[in-house]
Amino acid sequence: MKINQAIECLDFPCQDINHGCYYLPVVTIEAENVRMVMISEAAPKQLQDGFYESGSPLFAETTLLAFGDAGLQVSSIEELLAMGVYLTTAVKCGKTSYSIKTSTIKTCSHILEEELAQFPNLAVIMLMGDVAIKSLNYIARRNDLPRVIPAGPTYKIRGEKYLYNDIKVFPSYLQAGPAFFIEKSKRRMIAEDLSSAISIIQ
User: Cα–Cα distance between 71 and 144 in angstroms, integer?
Assistant: First the structure.
């Protein structure tokens, strides 16, 4: 299955993002093998930096570093897919400023909801940053479920037990992009969260 053929944005209603950087994973996956989804913030500003692009895309590079920090030595995104780890973003277009409007996150969460529904054996969702956290909370509310992740700074709420239906959810920090190289304290916390998540699917 190819995710970019299963779901799509039809009318691009959001105005504060770059539609020219619209990005859905183009990789072929076995949906039933996916056990963990890691949701980052938004599509890269340069499409060649997407998780599944050839060469040395930035999003793939920093994500592999994050898994290495967690003690899992993988050298490619293909290895993560083979382990049942799927990578995506909450917002499918690139950012045009530091923040993303709440209305955009809410709108794009409909696409993310369709994306998550493709994986019948999903056991873990990793929410990498505030945008991903907000997006999953919108999905839950639309389905008459309680808020998955409470309000508050990530360093205070991480480490607790959270569920979306029966799927375990880990709020953490953004691992995709240049900020990952410089924020050492967040790298440590991401590694801890990843280690806990990986233990569930191994």
Answer: 38
User: Distance between CA 202 and CA 189 in Å, rounded?
Assistant: 20
Tokens 């309680």, residue? 146
Q: For 141-191, how does the pLDDT look when each residue is reduced to its tens digit (9 = 90+)?
A: 999 999 999 999 999 999 999 999 999 999 999 999 988 888 899 999 999
SS3 content of the chain, % helix, strand, coil (to 5): 45, 20, 40
Cα separations (Å) of 39 from 8, 11, 109, 146, 159? 17, 23, 11, 20, 17
Alpha carbon distance 183, 185 (integer Å): 6
**Domain 3-201 class, CATH top level:** alpha beta
- What is the structure's pLDDT at 46? 92
107's tokens? 């709108």
Contact 62, 80 (CB under 8 A): no
Read off the pTM.
0.96
**What's the pLDDT score for residue 183?**
85
CA distance 166 to 49: 33
For residue 10, pLDDT over 90 is answered with no
Rounded Cα–Cα distance for residues 175 and 159 (Å)? 17
Instruction: Please report, for the chain, the start and end positions of each structural domain, with discontinuous segments joined by +.
Output: 3-201
